[in-house]
Amino acid sequence: MNKFSVIYETLKKKIDQGDYLQTMMLPTEAVLVEEYDCSRNTVRRAISQLIDEGLVYSVKGRGVVILEKQNTDELLLNLSNFNGIQALNSNQKIDYQTKVIKFTKLTITDELHQLTSFPIGTEVSYIERVRIVNEKRMVLDINYFRTEIVSGLTEEIAKKSIYHYIEKDLGVKISTSRRHLKVEGATELDTLSLDLQEYNCVGIISNWAYTDMGKLFEYTESHFIPDTFAFVELSTKR
What is the enclosing helix (H) or strand (E) of 184? Predict the structure, then answer.
């Protein structure tokens, strides 16, 4: 486990255990840098992850404030987090698996251009993945990754974390994404891939992701069972 993950997991555990109840503040950056013998950037990444999960928020001039724990049994998904379903709220025990059901290469046609926004003629890796949470097929991810940017992608990588591969192995910097949320009737692929039971519709999160050079490298549709997740966003008054 890398240093960022160690700091993040340790702070998260301490928050959950109530170690900071007396102050309701995280230790300062300087204290955490010395404690974990790391850079300020590593500490900031760990804190940023905690902010994304709605566990803390940063107050200019004061530090990082811990939010009182919210009691919920729902699976909370933060739409602003790049890691998507992998960033599910950590207060629950979650058995998480990914099954790749299709992996191939495609060339963007006019029809696919209208869907993905990739230029016509662009080569992409096309992937269908089922996300299994607590033994239930909850999410169908339909991915298009631009091969000139996300090169060397394999089915084995797709079973793990494609974003980790993009950032750590390829050294590509991911800057921003744009997401849409809608509900549509379930397709035959949805019915075959998900445990829809009585539902005849799915929620769909469409995601366009960009590098720090402004290049579109991913279009993904995440199809999910309507009663599966609660979506959360932390808003701070400025």
Answer: strand 174-185
